[in-house]
């Protein structure tokens, strides 16, 4: 029989046609010895089966040591079950906190919420992050790029929709043909 200690992995294999009996074990990192018995035949890579190594935290190094005492194993199982219960309680508390925070965010982002912001989807359309829209053309104005809302008064004709002009005396957008008639009457 041949035994190889390679870092964290100890590989034992019987040199025989039935190489499937090869086993691997996780051992302490200080093991680096290589031993051979004279009757063992040469071991090639096809005869080695290696189980995936699992990383253990420094607190869990006791898991790498074999324990034959059933009472010690039962105590360890009880300890792990207690840890699982504590972790489940912590997970549940975090889930409740996450849900409360998500509800707060949803309230802020809903129509009328404090985080709802307006923007100009186009010159004629004001939209907000909650999805509400206002067509500025219907009131004779365009969307104000700074506020994201439709203008409700004008200083220049650029604040007015197509077909409207700014009446600087009233600061209102009026239809261009009506303004032309008013100017002719004066």
Strand content: 15-25%
What is the count of DSSP helices, taking H or I runs of 4+ residues?
Answer: 2
Q: How many strands, what sense, and barrel or not for the largest sheet?
A: 4 strands, antiparallel
Q: Round the Cα radius of gyration to an integer and report it.
A: 39 Å
Which structural traits does this protein have?
three-stranded antiparallel β-sheet, 2 helices, alpha+beta, 186 residues, four-stranded antiparallel β-sheet
Q: How would you portray this structure in words?
A:
This protein has about 190 residues and is of the alpha+beta class. Among the domains are: about 1-55, no CATH class; about 120-185, no CATH class. It has two helices and nine strands; from the N terminus they run ββββαβββββα. Strands 3-2-1-4 form a four-stranded antiparallel sheet, with no helix packed on it. A hairpin with a 4-residue loop joins strand 6 (about 125-130) and strand 7 (about 135). It is rod-shaped.
Quick recap:
With 186 residues, the chain is of the alpha+beta class. The chain contains 2 helices and 9 strands.
What is the strand and helix layout of this fold?
Blueprint: E1 2-6, E2 9-13, E3 23-26, E4 34-36, H1 70-109, E5 118-120, E6 125-128, E7 133-135, E8 164-167, E9 172-175, H2 176-185
Antiparallel strand pairs: 1-2, 1-4, 2-3, 5-6, 6-7, 8-9
């Amino acid at each position: 029989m041949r035994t190889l200690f390679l870092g964290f992995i100890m590989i034992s294999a019987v040199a025989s046609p039935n190489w499937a009996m090869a086993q691997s074990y996780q051992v302490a990192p200080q093991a680096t010895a290589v031993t051979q018995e004279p009757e063992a035949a040469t071991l090639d890579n096809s005869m080695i089966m290696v189980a995936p190594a699992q990383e253990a935290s420094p607190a869990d190094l006791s898991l790498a040591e074999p324990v034959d005492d059933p009472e010690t194993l039962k105590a360890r199982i009880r300890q792990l079950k207690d840890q699982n219960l504590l972790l489940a309680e912590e997970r549940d508390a975090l889930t409740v906190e996450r849900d409360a925070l998500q509800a707060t965010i949803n309230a802020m982002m809903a129509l009328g919420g404090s985080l709802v912001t307006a923007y100009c989807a186009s010159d004629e359309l004001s939209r907000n992050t909650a999805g509400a829209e206002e067509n500025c053309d219907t009131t004779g104005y365009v969307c104000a790029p700074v506020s994201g809302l439709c203008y409700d008064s004008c200083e220049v004709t650029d604040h007015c929709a197509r077909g409207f002009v700014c009446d600087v005396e009233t600061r209102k957008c009026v239809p261009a043909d009506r303004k032309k008639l008013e100017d002719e009457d004066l």
